[in-house]
Amino acid sequence: MILEITTTHTPATDLGYLLHKHPDKVQSVELAAGKAHIFYPEATAARCTACLMLDINPVDLVRVRKGTYALQDQYVNDRPYTSNSFLSSAISKAFGSALNGRCNHRPGLPQTPMPFTLRLSSLRVDAELEAVERLFVPLDYELEVETIPLDTAFPTWGLSKYINLTLHKTCTLQELLSHVYVLIPVLDNSRHSYVSQYDIEILMQKGQGWLEQHPERDWITRRFLRNLRTYANEAILRLAGEEALPKDESMSPFQESLHQQRLRRAFERLKESGTASVLDLGCGSGKLLKLLLKEGQFRRIAGMDVSFSELQLAKEHLHLDEASPALRERLSLFQGTVTYLDERLKGYDAVAMVEVIEHLDEERLPAMERVVFGYAAPDTVVLSTPNAEYNVIYEKLDPEGFRHEDHRFEWTRQEFNAWCQHVCRSFGYEVTTELVGPEESAVGAPSQLAVFKKMKLA
Q1: How far is CA 358 from CA 22, 353, 396, 416, 453, in A?
Q2: What is the pTM (predicted TM-score) of this model?
Q3: How far is it, in rounded angstroms, from Cα 156 to Cα 359?
Q4: What secondary structure, in 3-state letters, does the chain show?
Q5: Residue 195 pLDDT more than 50?
Q6: What's the 3-state SS for 324-354?
Q7: Which of 417, 414, 455, 411 is nearest to 433 (CA)?
Q8: Structural domains of the chain ordered from first start
Q9: Which tens digits make up the pLDDT trace of 417-442?
Q10: What is the mean pLDDT of residues 77-83?
């Protein structure tokens, strides 16, 4: 797949400054499943063209490495050869400064509108062809759309879903790249990576200044976020300038403080246990890990999550790329699930599971119990989950519903205590439970937390 950007700005070679790539050199960057090469077929004062060509390895797309997941599940697929989300990732990796409107050598240049022509080859359109116009015409682009037949030898077979697209516009390079970055995966209706909360922030950033007013705003948002309703609804509300529903405590006025209370309480109980090594199961973006790293008592820390995107977000939040060797040695992140035996889960003094179990189907709980309490068998397990009785406090929450659409169940205090006692009997633990958050006399508090301690043999 290849992207071409041409300008006739004077001097046209300013494009090299904007892209932070010298026209006289061929440069490459590593991608998740291959490389991206940047080169200039022409670079004169009158006309300059930069090309971003991706070399995706089809085998790498289906190969599962330790701690990662397969980007595709079939060896035969169109991903190495079509303009798709890999190209968006490559734009961010290769042209990150331009995408963010920065130019160290010429600070004022990114704000300069220039005449651009951008060409995308083999762009998959998983929609009616008119969708291309609906997306780009409101952004003041002139379009050239070249349809591609299924097979030139058999014209009666009709057209494929692929097009060659040429865009013309006078604008800043940041504006051009932001539009393409967002709209390529929207037209393709596919992503090579998991979608997470982080992608909402990416959409807010790349869509700032144009997506809010776009007539296809909601359609763009849903497809960019792979039609995941919770994420899409939150993003649409934010784009409309409205308050988004809290993620896990629907309509709660103290959601942020409650989340911090849960993390702080889990941290305190882990510290009190005297443990030196902690595994955070379902670590998400790494908020508990950040607290643990600040405490020298915890000499070995790990985070596991089922979502690769969440792990990437944790890596960024914890600044692991810039971290010292000592910190990187102290902390590890890996992908996995709490319902499968995994030797990486063994050898930790303590395990934390903060608001995790309610995301499992109830029939999968016995598998989780065997993995955490039977197989990993740490000395301490700190676990929290919502208190279903408290849901009546949330005025706009369906009394029969859950706080989050991804919750598979929510327990009352009695149900939680009964489950805790079952775990203790089955795996040789003792437990203490407590409430977290503001308490109401009749219904308790929003969250409930249990600290399991492994019973020592006499």
Answers
A1: 52, 11, 21, 11, 21
A2: 0.53
A3: 50
A4: CEEEEEECCCCCCHHHHHHCCCCCCCEEEEECCEEEEEEEEEECCCCEEEEEEEEECHHHHHCCCCCCCCCCCCCCCCCCCCECHHHHHHHHHHCHHHHCCCCCCCCCHHHCCEEEEEEEEEEECCCCCHHHHHHHHHHCCEEEEEEEECCCCCHHHCEEEEEEEEEEEEECHHHHHHHHHHHHHHHHCCCCCCCCHHHHHHHHHHCCCCCCCCCCHHHHHHHHCCCCHHHHHHHHHHHCCCCCCCCCCCCCCCHHHHHHHHHHHHHHHHHHCCCCEEEEECCCCCHHHHHHHCCCCCCEEEEEECCHHHHHHHHHHCCHHHCCHHHHHHEEEEECCCCCCCHHHCCCCEEEEECCHHHCCHHHHHHHHHHHHHHHCCCEEEEEEEEHHHHHHCCCCCCCCCCCCCCCCCECHHHHHHHHHHHHHHHCEEEEEEEECCCECCCECCEEEEEEEECCCC
A5: yes
A6: CHHHHHHEEEEECCCCCCCHHHCCCCEEEEE
A7: 417
A8: 2-193 (3.30.1610.20), 198-244 (no CATH), 255-454 (3.40.50.150)
A9: 999 999 999 999 999 999 998 888 88
A10: 51
- The number of residues in the chain equals 458
Q: Which amino acid is at 311?
A: L
Give CA–CA dist 48/43, Å, rounded.
Answer: 4
Tokens of 410: 């929510």
In sequence order, what are the beta bridge partners of 380? 350, 453
* Top-confidence residue, 384 or 326: 384
Beta carbons of 84 and 56 less than 8 angstroms apart? no
Contact 82, 1 (CB under 8 A): yes
Chain center to CA of 159? 34
Task: Give me 136's structure tokens.
Answer: 């780009």
